[in-house]
Amino acid sequence: MSSRKFFVGGNWKMNGNKESLEELMTTLNTASLNDETEVVCGAPSIYLDFARSNLDARIGVAAQNCYKVAKGAFTGEICPAMIKDCGADWVILGHSERRHVFGESDELIGEKVAHALESDLSVIACVGEKLEEREAGTTDEVVFAQTQVIAENVKDWGMVVLAYEPVWAIGTGVTATPEQAQEVHEKLRAWLRTNVSEEVADTLRIIYGGSVTGANCKELASQEDVDGFLVGGASLKPEFVDIINARA
Ligand code: PGA
Question: Which one of 4, 10, 96, 122 is most buried, by most CB atoms within 10 A?
Fold first, then answer.
């Protein structure tokens, strides 16, 4: 196994309320979590403060999106400085729901990545192909192109985690097989080796997302290039603890 620290992010998306999230956070705070795993919970922006003040300090907090500039007349948006002001250290950018439900372009995602990093906010940057792209045999092309735009906007790779999230596996109950995940992760690492650097290829955490559960996480986690997970549905349930401990 590599020396890359295992990373498990929970993406609560637009779910929960103060009561249910408090219960979830109590479960996480009192659970026995593997110290070798870095854990971050992605809270709805209106609950960032609430999440930070309720979660144990060993668990990080992420926003699920942010805008590309520091301030101004951008009704409804939040900036990295606000996220940091709420005590959160991470933001998820380029999630497939942002790309495909809200129409965010590669270019916009790149600008957001650059501004978040300049603002000292760490980034979980997501890439992934749609079902028709996989079926057409263009998975590599799609994820390399998305990664390229992210890479062009990164100066400090130490503040980035790359999430491979095939769109067909998100929220569908259809998980990529461990072999399918490993194949793309390995290719992404090779792409980084050629296009960024040896060091980044060796050290960047590449995590998998798409219908990860307590039942399938161990096998996925056993793959050489799978350095953790980004978890949606199961991050709202007590089984998130099993996913955090997938390598225990
Ligand atoms: P899921 O979502 O685990 O519910 O498939 C993953 C994600 O969107 O990050």
Answer: 10
CA dist., res. 61 & res. 87, Å (int): 8
With the most atoms of ligand 1 within 8 angstroms of its CB, the residue from 15, 98, 165, 207 to mutate is 165
Q: How far apart are CA 171 and CA 173, in angstroms?
A: 6
A 10 A CB-CB count for 153 gives 21
DSSP 36-59: TEEEEEEE-GGGHHHHHHHS-TTE
Question: Which atom of ligand 1 is nearest the CA belonging to 92?
Answer: 9
Domains identified in the chain and CATH numbers:
17-28+36-244 (3.20.20.70)
Confidence of residue 248 (pLDDT cuts 50, 70, 90): confident
Give the active site residue among 38, 133, 165, 185: 165
User: Phi/psi of residue 240, each to 5°?
Assistant: -55, -35
* 231 ligand 1 Cβ < 6 A: yes
